[in-house]
C-alpha cells in the first residue's frame, strides 16, 4: 500500500542534489500554501463586506484556530519525522504503523479541542473584543470552526504521511480543492443563504473535510494493535512537540497582543488580524521550506550525512531570504492599499500604515528566527528547538510589545523587528555551535 502511495522513494532525500530536492518537493507545497493564503485573504474580504465587526471577530478567533492548527500540524510533523527516520532505517512496516497511530491521535486531539471549546470559548471572547456584536460573531464563528475541526486534524496527519514518502502532489491537490471549496461556499453561505459569520465558519469546515477526504485515499493507514499505540504515540510527540510548542506559543502571544491592543481600540485588534492574514501570503516560501526540510534533514541526519544537512539548511535560508524581499517592499511601500482591500475604515488604515511599515522591517531577520528551530527539530534537538520558539514568541515579543505599548500604540509595533533580530542572532549562533560538533 505504501509503495503505491509514494511518488518518489524516501532514498531520493539522500541521493539527489540539494537543489533538485528543493525544486521537486517545494513547489507543490508552496502552491498549496499560496492557495491557502489566497483563501484566507478572500475569506476576510467577504467577511469585511458583511461587517467590520465580523473582521474583528475573525481577528479575535484567529488564535483559537492557530491552537487547533498547532495540535493538528504538530502531531502530523511528529508522524512525518518518525516515518522519515524509519524509512532511512529501511523499516517500512514501522512507518506504516506510525502513520496509523497518527490517525488515532488526530481523532483524540479533535475530541479534546471540542470539549475545551465548549467550556472556554465564551470567557475567551469576552476579553478579546469590546463591541457586543463582535463578541457575538466571534463566539459563533469560534464554536463552529472548533467543533467542526475533525477534517483539519485528519488532513494534517494524512498530508504529513504522504510528504514523508515523497508524495507532495496529492496534498497540494487536496489543499487547493479544499480552499476553492471554501472560497466558493463563502459568498453563498454568508450572503445568499443569509447565514452571515456562521456561513463563513461552515464554509471553512466543509473545505477542511473535503481536503481530508482527498488525502485520506492514500494517506490513511491501519493502526497497529492497541498495546503498541502508547509507545509509538510517545515517539511521535517526542519529535512533534517542538512544532506544537512553536505553533501554540504563536497562538498565545497573538492572544496576549490582542488583549493589549483591545485596551486601545477594536480597530487595533483588526489591524493585527489583517497583518497575519497578509503575512501568510508573503511568508509562503519560508513556511513551505519549513515543511520541506523536516523529512529531508531528518533522513540525512539519521544517515550520517551531516554535510548535506548543512547544504540543505543554507539553501533554505538563501531561497527564503530572496522571496521575503517582496514582503518587505509591499509592507513598506503600500500598507494603506493592502489594508484598503479589506476595509474602508480610516482608523484601521491610519493605525495599520504605521504598524505595517514597522513590522515589515522584521521580515528578513525572521528568516533566521523561523528556520533555526525547524533545523534543530529535524535533527532531534527538541529542547533547543523549543527554547528558540519560547525565546522568540514569549520571552522577547510579548514583554517588548507590552513595554512599548506604554509609550503609545505606534511604538508597540517596534517589538516585531527587535524580536526577530535578537532571536535570529541567537538561533544562528546555536546552529554554528551545533555543526562544529557534528
Automatic annotation (TrEMBL):
Keyword tRNA processing listed: no
Membrane topology: Multi-pass membrane protein
Superkingdom of the organism of origin: Bacteria
Main location: membrane
Gene Ontology CC: plasma membrane
Pfam families given in the database record: MatE
Membrane-spanning residues: 21-42, 54-78, 99-121, 141-158, 170-193, 199-218, 239-261, 281-300, 312-334, 354-376, 388-407, 413-434
Record key words, sorted: Cell membrane, Membrane, Transmembrane, Transmembrane helix, Transport
Protein's name in the database: MATE efflux family protein
